[in-house]
Amino acid sequence: MGTVTGAAAATGPKQARSRVTRRHLLEAAVSCLAEHGWAGSTVSVVAERAGVSRGAAQHHFPTREDLFTAAVEYVAEERSTALRDLFHAGPAARPAVVEALVDLYTGALFRAALQLWVAASNEEQLRPRVTELEARVGRETHRIAVELLGADESVPGVRETVQGLLDMARGLGLANVLTDDAARRARVVAQWSRILDAALG
Fold it and tell me: PANTHER family, from UniProt (predicted)?
């Protein structure tokens, strides 16, 4: 009986270390994609950045595609959780919500996702995985936006207005990839907040 207890105790820390290793790999993969693009982001480069061996990386993620799609999904989920936590009481002031949604598209996660999109346009084995991932992340982001804005999608045009906000945010994220677009972004966020107040009531 003592042996089983000892084995279970040993398994706990081992599983915890495994989760930490996995998280380090995912975070390193997103950073590498954002900084070096698809061509410069290999499993070996990510493993080195995460401080683990290539073998350990491949134990968690057998293929490069597994690693990078999991990385973008993981960080997208983290950002969604952080966004919800910012407004845990429910609908908030619209300018703050619009700004927070736009911020989703101006950081390392968006740059990493953008590199995945570009790679997927040329890599047949990657395309279906990225397409499915983007659809899932898009649906979740839309749900969060509706919740935080207090939008009633049963009203004609409201769903399209919220989607337009997210499309605009993505466009601002693209503009920010090449130059610091903060000043123009602030004016656009203010205008979109006014548009949402008029459209959503």
Answer: HTH-TYPE TRANSCRIPTIONAL REGULATOR PKSA, HTH-TYPE TRANSCRIPTIONAL REGULATOR RUTR
What pLDDT was estimated at residue 57? Answer: 94
Q: Consecutive sets of 10 residues in the chain, 201 residues long: mean pLDDT of each?
A: 50 81 91 86 94 93 90 81 75 84 82 83 84 87 90 93 92 84 86 89 78
Q: Which of 187, 105, 185 is nearest to 145 (CA)?
A: 105
Nearest Cα neighbor of 48 from 26, 67, 25, 70 is: 25
Which residue has 């989760």 as its token pair?
19
Report whether 46 contacts 25 (CB < 8 A). Answer: yes
Task: Give the chain as a 3 state SS string.
Answer: CHHHHHHHHHHHHHHHHHHHHHHHHHHHHHHHHHHHCCCCCCHHHHHHHHCCCHHHHHHHCCCHHHHHHHHHHHHHHHHHHHHHHHCCCCCCCHHHHHHHHHHCCCCHHHHHHHHHHHHHHHCCCCHHHHHHHHHHHHHHHHHHHHHHHCCCCCCCCHHHHHHHHHHHHHHHHHHHHHCCCHHHHHHHHHHHHHHHHHHHC
Q: Please report the pLDDT score of residue 178 as a whole number.
A: 81
Residues 49, 93: contact at Cβ < 8 Å? no
